[in-house]
Amino acid sequence: MKPFSMLLSVAAVLATPAAAKPAGDTEATMRALYGSRAFNVARQSLAADYDRIVSEITTLTEIPASPFKEAKRAAAYLEMLRAAGLTDVEADEEGNVMGLRKGTGGGPLLVVAAHLDTVFPEGTDTKVRREGNYLNAPGVGDDTSSLPVLLAFIRALDKAGIRTRSDILFMGDVGEEGPGDLRGMRHLFNKGKYKGRIAQFISVEPGRDRVTNGGVGSKRYKITFKGPGGHSFGAFGLVNPAYAMADAMVEFGKMKVPANPKTTYNVGVVEGGTSVNSIPFETAMTVDMRSVDAGELAKEDAYLKSILDPAVARENAARSTAKGKIEYKLELIGDRPVGHTAPDVALVKIAMAAIAIGGGKPELESSSTDSNLPMSLGIPAVTIGSGFHTERSHAPDERLLLDRDETVRYMTMSLATVIGAAGIAK
Amino acid sequence: MKPFSMLLSVAAVLATPAAAKPAGDTEATMRALYGSRAFNVARQSLAADYDRIVSEITTLTEIPASPFKEAKRAAAYLEMLRAAGLTDVEADEEGNVMGLRKGTGGGPLLVVAAHLDTVFPEGTDTKVRREGNYLNAPGVGDDTSSLPVLLAFIRALDKAGIRTRSDILFMGDVGEEGPGDLRGMRHLFNKGKYKGRIAQFISVEPGRDRVTNGGVGSKRYKITFKGPGGHSFGAFGLVNPAYAMADAMVEFGKMKVPANPKTTYNVGVVEGGTSVNSIPFETAMTVDMRSVDAGELAKEDAYLKSILDPAVARENAARSTAKGKIEYKLELIGDRPVGHTAPDVALVKIAMAAIAIGGGKPELESSSTDSNLPMSLGIPAVTIGSGFHTERSHAPDERLLLDRDETVRYMTMSLATVIGAAGIAK
Fold it and tell me: How many Cβ pairs within 8 Å bridge chains A and B?
């Protein structure tokens, strides 16, 4: 965890997103890369691969990968990594799949990852529909679309004969979305065979100009309200946990949070009750609170905790507790550290330069991604765009724009970041 | 449907539950039945069958029968009806199972039914556990415990050689609980092969002294709240249907209803959302409103409808509607008629006399049972107790008391009602 003073500096950076000019060596190195013949071959490879990438996005989207249910998609992606010619292709115990592209040995290990999981629950129809210039399907963008881009990176590097100093571990990881709570990353950095050897981390997500160097912290809870339950007519008048939950939800929805440092909250899932004519014996909701500032996140946490007792007390006062009172259980289901990779760290400078030189408008931002975990460990990490523009992420009408030229242009910038981070062998 | 003046008289009866003295002919007939040698044999048959009944309750409880999923239990019960020696044993198109015990032809058709379905959703563990003098399991009482009692009635009638004037159709029916909305009864009375031929109807439910001659009316709705959804962090600030639903739920919970005529309401099931870090695009709740008085039920209905627009408007005002507003859909999922069988109708008098002469304390009451449907058609109907005492109906800790003597005593009274209603052949 970063000290508090550093967290404040994250907020300061976010307050004025820098269209940072790459400085000195980094800029020169990246300009040289862009000007090289090899990089031009790599760019052409990406362009030639576009249709294949889109086809692979469809294939992978249609293999559902709900949180904790990524295994089938992981198995398919593992075979794709193998087919791309990596070595040491394997799945780890947590369910991440990965393979190495060996470098010349002059640099430390770089991980380039996209996450396998989507937010959508089991049973969601993920059939991809083409409508105009869009592919439509739950999860088609976040983060399924990035998985084939990693494969295209590998093919482009090979076609261009680019040798990097660092080994690059390409990975499809599990548990990035809500309930997964970064379990893929926790395993990779704290337990897996590459533990202690990873010097830099790049997460690829849909997007273009934004370089995520701030990790938004989050606290997530499942709050369960329990009561005696009973027959809706015969036991009418007994306390009902649904009313206590509703009361808490209304109060939660009144929370005031600052726009800057960005701080948010959400009721995500509500559930409970057995039938229309039974007083529920249990209802539950999950809530998500986030901030780029640890202090604001702590305030949200305190606010949530302050509203639960009164909400439950009001229900216990409003109806009969003769058969039992309403009680609640607060269960922490997600706890992502606030993290930061400073703007002057080489990895951030490389990513910013790659976009600026490629013709984009780089912006630093904060988000909650796989990079939070390495950031919290002090390991340089950024989340960069795959080149694809997507819309309505996490909504059932999620969609991915098919604008070949712009996508390839930005995809090329991200490949430049990967190469820059891994270093070109002389 | 009964005229409104009659509904008021139901309320009047309910206001002063009558420990009615059976009058004249009915009392004499029932006393003669109780004094007969044949009835004594029938009583001994019920007593001898007690352990078998308890064993069959366990067997049937452990075959789950969620609403619309009664088929497996129905098939098992059909075989039990067949084994009990009935004729014309069959399942109808709706899923009810039934068989005839032929009478001598002097009386009109009597139906004696217990319902197959429970309130518990698929996947509920219905393994029966014995604890002290109780059998514990979801659904063990309501109404599973009545199904074997009907079988014991048939065996007792046969053993005693009792011949009735009316044919008796014994039935395990579907769709009594909430979502079923009396579909079994609707089919039986409006479509099935016995349509137009049923003169009297007896529903058997757990219980002892109470004779249900008033059908509590109900209105049930599923209310779905929809919004644009989105990423909890990226799209923070958009309207969230969970808050609109919570607002409506809090207002619903403030509804004032009279204790007399008895009027109730309930939020039964809440659901919605896809993940903790997504703004839900849809949440829903089911509500149940009941009254023995049609006017009070209409007031509840109007109250519910009055709170939805303001709740949705408050959410649309509280957060951004830039990506879409919250809207709601109100869907009627249950509509049970208020019904009544007058206290001076022979069937009611027989049931009251059977309990009084048997040593119980008969009370008239209103409830929402299969009898609502025939009552609403003007067909004499009552719901009587099986003799079993159960507790915590519709709750996961539902249980059934094993007090052999009292159970058999009351079971015998209910058999007397069945015989009295069908009439003993001379």
Answer: 243
Q: For B246, which of A232, A249, A278 is closest by C-beta distance? A: A249
pLDDT for res A336:
87
* A200 and chain B in contact, CB less than 8 A: no
Average pLDDT, whole number, for chain B?
92
Model confidence pLDDT, tens digit, residues A221-280: 999 999 999 999 989 999 999 999 999 999 999 999 999 999 999 999 999 999 898 999
Chain A residues 146-185 with a CB less than 8 Å from chain B = 177-179
Q: By the CB < 8 Å criterion, does B395 face chain A?
A: yes
Q: What is the pLDDT of residues B348-385, one digit of tens each?
A: 999 999 999 999 999 999 988 999 999 989 999 999 99
Q: Cβ–Cβ of A393/B231 closer than 8 Å?
A: yes
Does this model's pTM top 0.80? My answer is no
Could you tell me if A330 and A342 are in contact, meaning their C-beta atoms sit under 8 angstroms apart? no
Of B228, B233, B290, the CB nearest to A233: B290
Q: What is the pLDDT of residue B24?
A: 63
pLDDT of residue A11: 29
Position A14 scores a pLDDT of: 30
Q: How far apart are CA B412 and CA B422, in angstroms?
A: 15
Strand pairing report for A327-336 and A363-367: unpaired
| Partner A contacted by B77 (CB < 8 A) | no
pLDDT digits (tens, 9 = 90+) for B85-122: 999 999 999 999 999 999 998 789 999 999 999 999 99
Best to test chain A binding among B267, B323, B336, B370 (most A CBs inside 10 Å): B267
Q: Residue B286: its chain A contacts at CB < 8 A?
A: 273, 276
Give the mean pLDDT of chain A: 92
Mean pLDDT of A8-34: 57
Residue B295 in contact with partner chain A when CB distance is under 8 A = no
Rama region for B254: left / alpha / beta (φ>0; ψ in -120 to 50; rest): alpha
Minimal-distance CA residue of chain B relative to A216: B233
pLDDT per position as a tens digit, B149-193: 999 999 999 999 999 999 999 999 999 997 788 999 999 999 999
Q: Phi and psi at residue B282, in whole multiples of 5°? A: -160, 135
A214 touches B at CB < 8 Å: no
Pick from A133, A25, A2, A150: which is nearest to A84 by CA? A150
ipTM tops the 0.85 cut? no
Interface test with A, best of B218, B236, B276, B312 (most A CBs within 10 A): B276
**Site from B233, B249, B251 to mutate, A interface, most A CB atoms within 10 angstroms:** B233
Q: Check A266 against B274: CB less than 8 A apart.
A: no
Q: Which domains does chain A have, with CATH numbers?
A: 5-215+339-422 (3.40.630.10), 217-336 (3.30.70.360)
What mean pLDDT do residues A319-336 have?
95
Which candidate from B178, B243, B262 shows the least CB-CB separation from A250? Answer: B243
